[in-house]
């Protein structure tokens, strides 16, 4: 493998992140609870990681602002348009998959 510069690595990671965010926006049929149950993270987790990275670099970003970056719209709007009530099975799987510390 060719050696990447730090700048190239950052550019490629940013491009992959943008593609992931767009994919999640396009797949608004996929519920966050299903993402959590299958992958252990969801859109909210991604927005939290984004906010934490911004804050670590000294850039204050609110939870609502970081969620809008990931969802492409205010979170409440996305919920009203796309989020369904979780089924008892989804809730049970979520409760079972919560990491116990």
TrEMBL record:
Residue spans crossing the bilayer: none
Q: Which InterPro entries match?
A: SMc04008-like_domain (IPR023163), SMc04008-like_sf (IPR036810)
> What residues does the SMc04008-like domain cover?
30-95
> Record's superkingdom?
Bacteria
Q: Which Pfam families does its entry note? A: DUF1244
What protein name applies here? DUF1244 domain-containing protein
List the source organism. Rhizobium grahamii
